[in-house]
What we know:
By secondary structure, this protein is α/β, with parallel strands linked by helices. It has two domains: about 1-80 and about 160-235, Rossmann fold, CATH 3.40.50.300; about 90-160, no CATH class. Helix content is about 30%, strand content about 30%. Helix 4 crosses helix 5 and helix 5 runs parallel beside helix 6. It is globular. The model has no long low-confidence stretch (mean pLDDT about 90).
Amino acid sequence: MDDLLRVEDLHMRFGDFEALKGVSFSMGRGRLVGLIGPNGCGKSTMMRCISKIHDMSSGSISVDGNDIGALKPAEVAKLVASVPAEVGQTFGTTVMDMVMLGRYPYVDRVWWETREDEGKVREALRAFGLDHLRKKQVSLCSSGERQRVLIAKAYVQEPKLMLVDEPTSHLDMKYKLDVMEYLQKMARSDMTVMVAEHDISLMARYCDTCIIMKQGEIVTIGDPKKVIDAELIRDVYEVDARVGLDEDGEIYVLPKRYAGAREVA
C-alpha cells in the first residue's frame, strides 16, 4: 500500500527552542492513528506543520504525493482538515452554517452555496447525528454535539487526512466513545485520521497504530497492543502504571504514581 502521509526529517524551532527534532515516519491510507505523549512533546506542533499552520524549519511533508511546502493554503485544505480541541467564538452561527464553512476550499465565487455544497453538508449532518440540530446555534449545543459539529465541518472538506486535536478532553464517557466511533468509521474509508489524545486506554482501544512522542522526538510507532507497556509509560510519562488486557483483550492503562515522587515521612 502506498503512503498517504510521509514526514521526513521534520524540524521545528521557535527561537532557541527546538520543538521537533528530526521527526520521520509514514502512514498508509484508511488508518486511525493515535498521537500520544505528555504535554509539550510536540504533538500539536507536528500536526500544525502537516496542515501548514506552521511553516516547518526544515524537512519535508507530503500528503497523497503532494509536497505540502509547495502548496497554497486552499490547496492544502483539500488534502488536510484540522479539528481543534475547542470551537472558539461562534457569534450565533448555526450548526448548518458552521459545517458549511468546511466547503470553503471549493469557493469559486461570492455566492457559493451550491446545491452540491448543501447536499454534502446535509449528508454529513445526517451521518453525524446532527441534522435535527441544523438550525440550532453552536454555542447552545452540548460539548459532545459541538465536537461532532467540528468533525462534520472537517469531513465536508473531503480531505485525504484529518488531524484531530484532543477530541474527547471535555467529554464524559458516553461521548468519548461516541466521538471515537465516528472517527473510526471515517478511517475505514481511504481517509486517514490522526488523533492527538491523552487518554491512552482510549487510543489503544480504537487506533490501528500509535505514534509515541517525547521531547520533540518519536519514541516508537506500532500496534498499541504491542508497543504500549508499563516500561514505555514510565519512560515517556515518568509514571508507574499497570498495563494489562481486560477480558475482551483490550489494553487498559492504570496510572499508579509519579515515578519521581518522594514518600512523605
